[in-house]
Amino acid sequence: MAKSGHIHMPPSNEAETRTRLIRPALVRAGWSDIQIREEYPYTEGRIHVSGKTVKRGDKKKVDFLLEHRPNLPVAVVEAKHIGKPLGDGMQQALGYAEALDVPFVFSTNGEGFLFHDRTGQSTVVEQKLTPDQFPSPTELYRRYTEWKQKSGITETLLETEYHSDDPNKSPRYYQRIAADRAVEAFARGQKRLLLVMATGTGKTHAAAQIMWRLKRAGSARRILFLADRNVLADQARGDFKHFGNSLTKISRQNFNDTGALMAHEIFVGLYQAMSGATEAEKLYKRLPSNFFDLIIIDECHRGSASLDSEWHEVLDYFSGAAHLGLTATPRETTDTSTTHYFGNALYTYSLKQGIDDGFLAPYKVLRVFLDNDISGWRPVAGTLDDKGNPVEDRVYELRDVNKAVIFPQRDELVAKKIIEYLDAIGDPYAKTIVFCRTTEHAERMRSALVNAAGEKARADRRYVMRITGDDEEGKMQIDTFRNPEERTPAIVTTSQLLSTGVDIQTCKLVVLDKPIESMTEFKQIIGRGTRVREDKGKMWFTVMDFQGATKLFADPGFDGVPERVFEIGENDDITSTLEMEDPPGEPIEVKEKEDGLVGIIIEQNPLSIVDRPPVYTVSGVPYAVVKEQVQYLGPDGKLLTESLTDFTRKNILDHYPTLESFFSAWQSAERRQAIIDQLDATGIPLEELQKYVGADFDLFDLIVHVAYDKKMMKKRERAEAVRRSNYLSKYNGKAREVIEALLEKYADLGYLALDEIETVKTPPVSNIGEPLEVLGWFGGTDKFTDTLKDLEKTLAAVE
After folding, report:
1. Fewer CB within 10 Å of terminal CB in the chain, N or C?
2. CB neighbours of 591 closer than 8 A, spacing ≥ 6?
3. For residues 33 and 41, is the Cβ–Cβ distance under 8 A?
């Protein structure tokens, strides 16, 4: 007797294709469950902010990521439904492979594979494979190692794993790529290396992995991590704690016992601790010039890239070592070139990429325009400053404020606006950095903020603090300010000290009250707010701009090529370039000290007396806000100056150019939710707009009004219009009662009331009859569903 067989239906969708056809083929080829990362998410999903509402977009996912071992991916597999062509997913897969730096790429529909080799080793770039021809882990790894070994990478180095204190945590994909590129360049003997990674993306973490792998593989004996500020060196030591006793911080004291110092293998050092103006202070010369194999230079856009700086003497002395520069902002000037010294970046991960991936916080900009800043201020004849000195008769513009003239009333207004904003967002203890023009300005702003804060400042003397290079009490508060668990200091005023490198994870407000012309400085300052701490409610931040400095967001160099700064001539205004007040003269050298302040050595007769331009403090000059402009970060990474409604209209019309196309899509409950999700993913702040119009209006009315200029009707008005029409005459008895109940439910909830057949189980419909009874009055489930659609269409059509 013949055995009865089962009829095998083909997979009905992509998920079934993956489960029933593709994964089994991978397993048959020898890939283990640990090596197969199905639906592998490699981003967090872009953060969208609508008012105070924060949502994440979808994570970017790879259908299958195949790893030889953890953090060593070798292949991407893109799956499509069995009905699709074999290579339908190849272009998508190649995009994933490029982003993840993976050499082997497969597209499949479950009936076979299209294999693409990105290494350039195969004579044929793409070839078709049957399901049973998929390469084994051994075969793909053999190809991988052959490719790497051709460029000088040893298998020992390839096999050296990343450090992890938690087996469930791995480096982010871009950190892995950055570390891999640096390790491999070092192994090839490259002496000058550069990684460009946006502030907040974990440059120091990547450096720690580079050091770990090179040490474990025996490729580097001793490594120096070089910084120019104590706070940066101490932050690095925290990231390097897994090196244990092999780690030490170089200080002038431990040079007293060079033998003990040389017993260590991982060193964190400051330029200032290793060098100095005199030969006796150049302590680095007590070490052999071949002592280090690798020197990692943090924030390398500063002095290390300047060929004539004293810091560069340290690098020149250890010239036999490889020099790896880390920066978020490579700098190109006539005498300071990051790329000239370190070469082109091995890898770049930009601010835009970080925000798009959801690893960095998006921002919005609040520009505040003050009357006298716009129009300028001219003193009336005989005006005296607060010291009784006559004020020079001229127009004082914004560029003169806090440099040539000081207006106490302006400081008070700026402080008031900052406190008002913190109160408006409901978080008066949100970590805030106020960037001021000078240390004196920072002190005045501290005092003005204390007065504006009132009770909060009286209750805790640390509510507002000044942290500048010349204030020891303030500098002692840096670690406390950085600590997300510490409530105060909440507001910090500074000039230069906090502009670079200091990790303020929960900073929610960055205030600019200093002119900024340097793109490098601007990027670094904005970077103070870009970190995400979801557990602390830090998902986005605001830039409050009193100086017009945020015009630099529109500069192509903001997230593109490094800035180029032209040489300052003898007759040029160096003070405006450096944004400091200093004696005039011919600049010989510009140095950034450990405390972050910029010092200028001036060539002049030491016996001569240089007259500073007078600085007037003029109280009583009234200041007022004449305009506030809010700018939003759009999905393309550019700031939008248009209103919320204009922004929404443009994006809706991009998806649905006509009312008819939108209305057609809106008719389906499934498509209706898809529309909402789609608009939400592009950053359209529907919830924020809904707050503006109020709960009386449905989302449908909001969209058609904003996008297509249709008159808005309240939900109850639409329901009443249907009642007044002949629509109800189509129904009798209980069915009519149900329609009346549905109209009442719509008047309260909008279209959500009509989206699901489950509405028969909830009041007020359930008060009329049992679900089966209700469905029976309309002729069954299908006809009741048709009735809901017809009612939705009728409600949308009334005017």
Report:
1. N
2. 303, 309, 310, 598, 599, 600, 601
3. no
